[in-house]
Amino acid sequence: MIAACADASRTPEPGRDARGASGAVTADHPLAAEAGLAVLRRGGNAMDAAITMAGVLAVARPHMNGVGGDMFLLYYDAKTGTVHGLNASGPAGSRASIARVRAQGPTRTEMPGTGPMSVSVPGAVRGWAEALRRFGTISWQEALQPAVELARQGLPVSERLAADVAEEAEKLAGDSVAARIYLPDGQPPAAGDTLRQEELAATLARIQQNGPDEAYAGETGRSTVSYVQALGGFLEQRDLANYRPEWVEPISAEYRGLTVLAMPPNTQGVTLLEALSLLQGFDLARLGHNSAAYLHTLAEAIRIAVEDRDTSVAAPRSMRVTVAQLLDTARLARLARTIDPGGSAPPASATDRADQPNTVYIIAVDAQGNVVSMIQSLFASFGSGLVVSGTGVVLHNRGSLFSLDPGHPNALAPGKRPYHTLCPAMVLDGKKPWLALGTPGGDGQTHTLVQVLHNIALFGMTPQDAIDAPRMRRLESGTLAIEDRMPAPGIPALEQRGYRVSVRTGLTATFGGAQAILIDPETGEKRAGADRRREAFALAY
Q1: Which of 125, 187, 395, 492 is at 20 to 30 A from 170, Cα to Cα?
Q2: What is the CA radius of gyration of the chain?
Q3: Count of Cβ atoms closer than 10 Å to residue 176 Cβ
């Protein structure tokens, strides 16, 4: 059973969630959420709504996801009572090699963060098509129509988008195509402007008309390969033409009477499950929500799980340990005994890496009980910094996550998927979905998910209140980034424990952009929440 803070039915008190008896959606932009809800209202199912929202987000959040990015999803099929995972991440190109990267500079120890060598095969479009083929009910053309229409009419620029583009102006200026689209007249668009993406509109229309193969073997795919090759990248035409997404078995862990589901490697889903498993034996509710003892205990579980991730998680065939070994209960019990809720900050010497919170998240729940938990991304803002000439396609930089250490499981190799930070999640109560949740936020995704899940399941908050609550993020250096809305006694108490605390003001993407939909197990009512730290939006009917 969950702690006494939540009632026996695991139903939070009424709050400010979007609530509906029939269906609910969340997405990282209001226009995407509106498009998804419209699909449900017309009789489409959760997968139809999710793929429609994914297409709209490719236009509405062009610096974070799209045709040139990757995608993962979890799908609960109400007819069979089973959960399926779809891995739509692409591998490194056939020309990829550590030697080729190091030839760019003999002292290079890390993959390029931008540019052609950071580009792996984009998996999102074939992922959309495969998910719709297997579980959708509407046509490919119908699913992409809202995205095509939005791209043709132009995107209203919000304050958030204007700030995001301005922040990347230097990166965009380094690519003539990107600069022409996103820095018109040499300046980023202002809030209230209309962003014109004519080439992307034409590309989406070709993909809509010709099918997903257009992005891989058609004009769009050929243009992508030619562009990347001309700049010295690793892609060949056969890499795109032969790419297929993969249906996989989700991984799971039992946690306080619930079953938490995540994607297997090459994602950090196992890291989420490991952190939760490490926390299994602690009376977190007694420690108190966001107390110093509570935050320290979470930070230690996250630290241990991330250390395992960074040494072990990669494409499955390259891993030296299995998911079962990482989640072995006896092993985790031994590690959990090293965590002292009253203890001090551990020594830390690592430096903080660049933050990559540039991802979008989607949930859809329909009246039949089908549930989609879906995430897609370019990784860095505007990904590789390359926009394919004539297509408007921003190429991701997921290849930058490969290691140049030939002995590391995540070492760069042709045809190999890189490690991914993306981590969609779903929680079952018994055999039925109780909660779908996820977040953008790069390395911090698991940190956010642990806290939001506890806020709902341990502390009885509604999804929206759980998302709005102040959060902590453990940085690579061991510093705790903490929102300034955290209760005041906690911060000096953490500093007394030896932590370096970085207090962050306002609602920033450092702490992700969580979304969640809770399904009441008794009434079936859907309660949806979305994060004000981004442009996320929740709707229900």
Answers
A1: 125
A2: 22
A3: 10
Q: Are 29 and 61 in contact (CB under 8 A)?
A: yes
The one-letter amino acid code at 53 reads M
Q: Name residue, tokens 């759980």.
A: 466
Q: How far apart are CA 326 and CA 304, in angstroms?
A: 11
pLDDT at 509 over 80: yes
Q: Respond yes or no: is residue 359 known to be catalytic.
A: yes
Q: What is the DSSP letter of 278?
A: H
* Ramachandran angles phi, psi of 361, nearest 5°: -130, 150
**SS3 category, 30:** helix
Q: Is pLDDT at 14 greater than 50 in this prediction?
A: no
Do 162 and 255 meet the contact criterion of CB atoms below 8 Å apart? no
Q: Phi and psi dihedrals of 202, rounded to 5?
A: -65, -40
Can you tell me the mean pLDDT for 317-339?
A: 97
Section 526-535 average pLDDT: 95
Q: Give the model's pLDDT for residue 81.
A: 98
Residues 6+ apart with CB under 8 A from 251: 261, 262, 263, 264, 269, 270, 273, 323, 327
- Total-model pTM: 0.95
CA atoms within 13 A on the CB side of 228: 35
Show Cβ contacts of residue 369 under 8 Å, excluding neighbours closer than 6 positions.
76, 78, 432, 433, 519, 524
| Residue position matching structure tokens 């779809």 | 86
3-state SS, 385-411, equals CCEECCCCEECCCHHHHCECCCCCCCE
Task: Give me the catalytic one of 114, 220, 359, 448.
Answer: 359
Say which residues have a Cβ less than 8 Å from residue 410's Cβ, sequence separation at least 6. 313, 314, 315, 318, 401, 402, 403, 418, 419
pLDDT in tens, 266-325: 999 999 999 999 999 999 999 999 999 999 999 999 999 999 999 999 999 999 999 999
Q: Tokens representing 503?
A: 């207090």
Q: Are 54 and 144 in contact (CB under 8 A)?
A: no
* DSSP conformation letters of 69-117: SEEEEEEEETTTTEEEEEEEPPPPPTT--HHHHHTT-TT--B--SSSGG
Q: What are phi and psi of 504, to 5 degrees?
A: -110, 135
Q: Which of 441, 267, 422, 438 is closest to 357 using CA atoms?
A: 441
pLDDT tens-digit map of 403-413: 999 999 999 99
What is the average pLDDT score of the chain? 94
